Amino acid sequence: MYGIGSRSNRMLLTIQLALIALAALALSTGLVCVALFIDAVFSGDSALSGRYAIWIVVAFAVFAAADWPSEVISQNVGKEYILRIHELLANRAVELPLGFFDADRTGQLGVTATTGAVFAANAPGMMLRPIMHGATVAVVTSSYLLFIDWRIGLITLAVSIVAVISQRKLFAEYKAAEQIKAQHDQRTASQVLEFAQVQPVLRAAGSNSIGERSVRATMREQLLVLTRTQKAGQGVLARMNTILAFGVITIYAVTTTLLIAGQLTPGLFIGVIVLVFILAKLAAATIPFGEGLQLAHNTFEELRSVLDADLLPEPEAPATPADFSIEFDRVTFGYQTDDPVVRDVSFTVPSGTTTALVGPSGSGKSTLMKLAARFYDVDDGSVRIGGEDVRALGTRNVLDSIAIVFQDVYLFEDTLYENIRLGHRDASREAVLRAAEAAGVAEFAEALPQGFETIISEGGANLSGGQKQRVSIARALLKDAPVVLLDEATSSLDVTNEHHILTGLRQLAGNATTLVIAHRLHTIRDADQIVVLNPNGEVEAVGTHEELIVTNERYRGFWGERTDSSDWRISRESRSQRDL
Ligand SMILES: Nc1ncnc2c1ncn2[C@@H]1O[C@H](COP(=O)(O)OP(=O)(O)OP(=O)(O)O)[C@@H](O)[C@H]1O
């Protein structure tokens, strides 16, 4: 994955690796010359010690000449990693099926694109460089020692190889702990975000509510995982330091034995002791970098999993729908294999009519909407628009013919005008303003400081929920699509918002084929047909309000609950209608 950059970046990375190798070779030569210099000084050979002194100066000069540019190059290679990771993620994001972007995946993409990309950018310079340096210097210096004294060389080489292998093995263990931590980080982040968003509800429920307890439990678990990961990291460092310490003691023991046996000169003995001491220091300094390098590897792996994620198959010659009816034909689908959330669902929304979906929470209403928009492909059966399977129409065709108004409206940091124009990029100014008028956006735009040119903050934080939904309806009206998928707001709206949204939605449904997850009484009553789902994700009944209220127990209960809890809303609704 280090080769994700452009050709020139890959070449730079190769040059960097070559420079690291050269710097490591020069440093090893310098260090061995220090040992030989000490030996020469002890033996009183001034000519030889002079020659070694020159070698030492040359070796360290080469080291500096190779090391500095390798650092500069590594920074450039790292910068391109950030750009490339963002480019690859962005390119892939527009190809992936919309169903890919659930909360966990979106969190994971966010982490990969931010902290992950920074770790990857730091990998060549701050981590790869010192690690390669440490490992190369250890192995090259030991090889040199083989020529000076094969026994010392052999034992130093053995210790170096054991240290390099142990480092790889131990950091693989740490990687597993870090991956678990990353998953928990994502889960905690999304839960805390959700916790902040639902504060009004939680505060109304009082302290120690289910939401509060579940966030506390997640945080406690997060703390445990963090402690476990830190322990794993510290354990790796401690074990690596122990391996190094044993290695150094073994080399010292062999060297001392050779000295006592008279097989090593005192000068060389001191030289080797100094050399091994410096080597051990160098090796110990590289160990913590393994942790960072592992995190960079995790980023590359996550990137790989996004790049390798399955795309939906697209037809070579997309079919054309005969009309804009929507047909679910024995549809079965689950997010996990062998765990369907909708089962054997069959019903048809005739072209130009409105069908309301009702059913308990989790019965699969949103899932059916997403299948109609081809966020996912069905496991069994078929979803057809105008008689053609959505797989034969192709995702582009399907999305072009659909306007979606879901509850979670996202607004971009741009003007109010541009946020509406997103519904149809080529629309004229008149068309945008017409849609804004029809959805009741014009009414609140007048009160904003720069009207339609007011910048909406990221996510639409400076608009109310009802206003955001009006923008979303304006977008959909502007798109003027023949099929409308609508998830009505569950939260209560004030009279003004309710009135504008109701008017906008009526206009939106107009002559379009509309599939709506209905929460509001008027939508259910006005629908041409209602599909009742049971908790198993099966169709329990299909009919009009008048039919179902007589024939279906579940629907009667559902309607009863709504009217009981909405008595005050119905009277308010009728009052606001009267006022018009
Ligand atoms: N992206 C997903 N990954 C895994 N499971 C999911 C996903 N989305 C929904 N589910 C599960 O599928 C089932 C049906 O969910 P769905 O949102 O379609 O129901 P719903 O009837 O719209 O519920 P609600 O009225 O509460 O919005 C639920 O058990 C839900 O937990």
Automatic annotation (TrEMBL):
Superkingdom field: Bacteria
Keywords carried by this UniProt record: ATP-binding, Cell inner membrane, Cell membrane, Membrane, Nucleotide-binding, Transmembrane, Transmembrane helix, Transport
Record GO terms (molecular function): ABC-type transporter activity; ATP binding; ATP hydrolysis activity; ATPase-coupled lipid transmembrane transporter activity
PANTHER family associated with the record: ABC TRANSPORTER, ATP-BINDING TRANSMEMBRANE PROTEIN, ATP-BINDING CASSETTE SUB-FAMILY B
Species of origin: Agrococcus casei LMG 22410
GO-annotated cellular components: plasma membrane
UniProt record similarity statement: Belongs to the ABC transporter superfamily. Siderophore-Fe(3+) uptake transporter (SIUT) (TC 3.A.1.21) family.
InterPro entries listed in its UniProt record: AAA+_ATPase, ABC1_TM_dom, ABC1_TM_sf, ABC_transporter-like_ATP-bd, ABC_transporter-like_CS, P-loop_NTPase, Type_1_exporter
Domain ABC transmembrane type-1: 17-295
Protein name listed in UniProt: ABC transporter, ATP-binding/permease protein
Listed transmembrane segments: 12-38, 50-69, 154-171, 243-262, 268-289
